[in-house]
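Explain this protein:
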Amino acid sequence: MPIKRYRTFEEAQRAQQLPSGDPRIPDRLRQVLTLWARLRPVTRPPGLHRFRSAEDWSAWRATVQVQRPGPGDA
């Protein structure tokens, strides 16, 4: 990977921005989503879940959120 040097912060920001319609946008988006999925995996049990009331759903959701790893757990 080549190393690029910039004289100012604004010059570096402009170099990272892609113009609309650039064919590299889907690849860049895929990289960001892949990184996000690796950093914050979903620990929700797979499958369809049905609940009798909103309170049951809220209680289940609270337990699922507790299982989610925090920022320092990775």
The chain has three helices and no strands.
